[in-house]
Structure formats: structure tokens, C-alpha cells
Write a structure and sequence with these properties.
Layout lengths: L24 H14 L1 E9 L6 H14 L4 E5 L7 H4 L8 E2 L4 E2 L1 E4 L2 E5 L15 H13 L6 E7 L6 H10 L4 E6 L3 H16 L4 E6 L4 E2 L6 E2 L6 H9 L3 E4 L4 H9 L3 H4 L4 H17 L1
Parallel strand pairs: 1-7, 1-8, 2-6, 2-7, 8-9, 9-12
Antiparallel strand pairs: 3-4, 5-6, 10-11
Helix pairs in contact: 1-4, 2-10, 4-5, 6-7
Amino acid sequence: MADKCNTNSGCSSCSSGDSCDTKTKQDHTKAMIAETLDKIKFKIMVMSGKGGVGKSTVSVNLATTLNKMGYKVGLIDADIHGPNIPKMFGVKEKGVLSTAEGIIPYEPVHNLFIMSVGFLVRDDDDAVIWRAPLKHSLIEQFLSDVKWGELDFLVIDLPPGTGDEPLSVAHIIGEVDGSVIVTTPQEVALLDSRKSVTFSKKLNVPILGIVENMSGFICPKCGEKTDIFKTGGGEKAANELKVNFLGKIPLDPIVVMQGDSGKPYVIEYPDTEVTNAFRNICEKIIKQLQ
């Protein structure tokens, strides 16, 4: 992008051409982000204190569940160093479609749109070795140049921890409507999830609640549930931290298989305990936001 706006950029404040010569690149980006956010009702960050808790799986199935409930949903894969969202939706294409109006997001499911750095790398084995300013700029571009259109929800899948990407999202959006914090029942995961709660509070991001993922293993043959990683830790942490507990998602091997196959679990298995758990969590989120 040039240092100054041009009349073909799609920014309404530049459409007349009267003030283009005086607008800086930063002013233009802020204007475009503001226009994008004005068309989105609710912006939600999905966070985790550590890796390996199934945060991206939760993000994909929450976004898909909201879509199944009749909402128009966007999903940003802000996990720049580990972009898994394209694979989880079975999108193998590389590159993006850029028009005069902006970048067109992928639509793997009707009225569910996704954007990821995974579309921008030539090979899935390529490592994204970027410092904070580049990551910040990419997240800005996902919100300024991508044509999301009118959305009910924008779900942002963040990398583990409380580093550059969560901080960039919170600062760029300004008013995030809420954070969903994903944890597992193990004590070490719960300790890290508390940091995500603290992060949200310090940045004045409303905490929608904690989700306890992998909460009990469901045997695919007999259906019996076994608490491999304990259970109830997420709810206990939520009570101690005085935040909402959104629910427990059982550990079902088919969830992993569906993520690898590129078909979201809640679409392929609509009548299971796991899908019901995602729906209940979404209903609690919607109730808080509305």
C-alpha cells in the first residue's frame, strides 16, 4: 500500500478524492478498519493460556455452530505461526482473491467466511518468522483490506498466551465485545488460563467465560465417559476468578478426525453430546452479548 490514499481504495472518506493528498497510510488504515467494524455486531477473541488445549478446534466449532444457528460469521486465524483454520475447513487453495474493493475471504460454508496467513504462504511447511510489527500489520490488514461485509459475529482465533497477537487485536479493534478462554482440566492448563483472564481484565475486554475442553473421554464403542484429565477444573477456576463458566466439551476422538479431514464436527455430527455442548456454549455467549 502506498503512503497516501488513492481514490480506488474503497475508503468512503477518500471516495470524493478531495482529501486524498493529505491522508497518510495510517489514517487510511484506521478509516478502513472503522468501516469494517461498523458492519460487525459482535467481535469475540478466543484465547488460551497455553498451547495444546484445542483452542483452534473450539474456535472452528463455535463459529460453525453460530453459523448453524442462522448467524453470518467471520473467522480470523490470528495464530500467525500456526495457522490451522484452513485445514480444519478443508481449504487447500493458496493465495487470495483481490479486487478493487479489497480482499475476498474464503467461504467454506455458506455465510461463514475465513481468513488466515495460511493462505499467504507458498507451502504449509514454511515457517512464518516475523517480528511484532509485521504481525501487527497483518492483523490490521485482515481488518482493513478484507471485505467481510455485514457480519453478526467475528470470531478471532488467537495464538496461545498473552503476547503480540492478542495485544494487537485488542488495540486495533478498540472495543472487543468479549473473550472466550479455553482450558483443559489439568492444573497446569488452569494456571495459564488465569493469565488470560488477567490479560482481558487489564485491557478492559469483557470476559464471556471459560470453556473446559477435553472434559472427560467418551468411548466411541460403548459411549462411557472417563475423566482422563480430571474434570471440573475449569468451572472451579471460573468460580474463583468470578467469571462465567460456559461449559464442558467432552474429549471425543472423532472431533480430532474431523479437524484433520477438514469437516467441522458440529456439521457432520449434529446430534451428539459434543455438538450439544457447543450449542449450549453459544447460547450462553449470545445471551450475554444481547
